[in-house]
Amino acid sequence: MSNIINCISHIKDFNREKYIQLNLGLEIQDFVNPNLLEMGWDERVDEYKKALEGFPNTLSLHGPFLDLKPVSLDPKIKEASYNRYLQALNIGKKLNVDYIIFHSQINPWIKEPKIVEMTNNLNREFWNKILEEVEDFNGTVLIENVFEFDPLMIKELVDIINLPNVKICFDIGHALLESKVELEDWIKILNDMIEYIHLHWNNGIYDEHNRPTRENILLIKELLNKYNLNPKIALEYGISDVEDEIKRLI
Questions:
Q1: Where are the transmembrane segments (predicted)?
Q2: d(CA 169, CA 37)
Q3: Nearest residue to 120 via CA among 83, 84, 166, 154
Q4: Per residue in 109-126, pLDDT tens?
């Protein structure tokens, strides 16, 4: 594996010199916290700007997701969601990130074809509108699977959004937790739409964000090689020694 990124939830966990030495990318997850987005976010952005000046490796940002639904039919919820997404995109622009990850917000239990089509079309309108508003954002938006039990759900969504700078973050832990198909089916179906992977494991019951075993890692490497894919790999689990973990992964 190459293109490795580590996820952190606070700037205190970022060691700039170590990341550069290891050629390790960074995913910033501080801004998923709605309390920070309400108060103190601008100071945190300034801290990151100072720490990241001249940072040469991949930089990504996880956007907010709690209680948000940007295509809600309730205008108040829709407005609040739009503002939070816009806030995250502007933070990403200030930090000059390569990627911003947003949850798909797909409800898999809503299966009626007309409602699915309407929701996907509303998503297309939403993403076209909001990305026009931040037209000088040069990064890629990644839509992440969460509750989907079938990869076709998120594939159809991203196909309908149909923007060159909107790709997929394939969250392996979420797929293991929710899916009715094998991991290979996800990778085969989503294929080169997978720009980025959130790597973590679980017992199939809880979203535990466990460290993958060596066997888990070999399986993922085998599948990516089989389909000739080379996405960014973001480590979304607790790591005590990141240098040792990189050696284990490669």
A1: none
A2: 23
A3: 154
A4: 998 999 999 999 999 999
Number of domains in the chain: 1
Break the chain down into helix, strand, coil percent, rounded to 5. Answer: 50, 15, 35
CA 61 to CA 48: how far, in whole Å?
Answer: 11
> Domain of 41?
4-249
pLDDT tens digits, one per residue of 158-197: 999 999 999 999 999 999 998 889 999 999 999 999 999 9
Please say whether the beta carbons of 240 and 8 come within 8 A. Answer: no
Spatial separation of the C-alpha atoms in residues 163 and 36, rounded to whole Å: 30
pTM of the model: 0.96
* CA within 13 Å, CB half, 159: 11
47-54, Cβ contacts within 8 angstroms, sequence gap of 24 or more: 47/11, 48/11, 48/95, 49/94, 49/95, 51/11, 51/14, 51/16, 52/16, 52/26, 52/95
CATH number of the domain residue 85 falls in: 3.20.20.150
Q: Coil, strand or helix: which one is 136?
A: coil
Cα 53 from Cα 210, distance rounded (Å): 32
Which pairing describes strands 194-199 and 59-62: parallel, antiparallel, or unpaired? Answer: unpaired
Angle at 168 (CA atoms; ends 163, 169), nearest 5 degrees: 145
* DSSP secondary structure string for all residues of 52-80: HTT--S-EEEEPP-TT--TT-SSHHHHHH
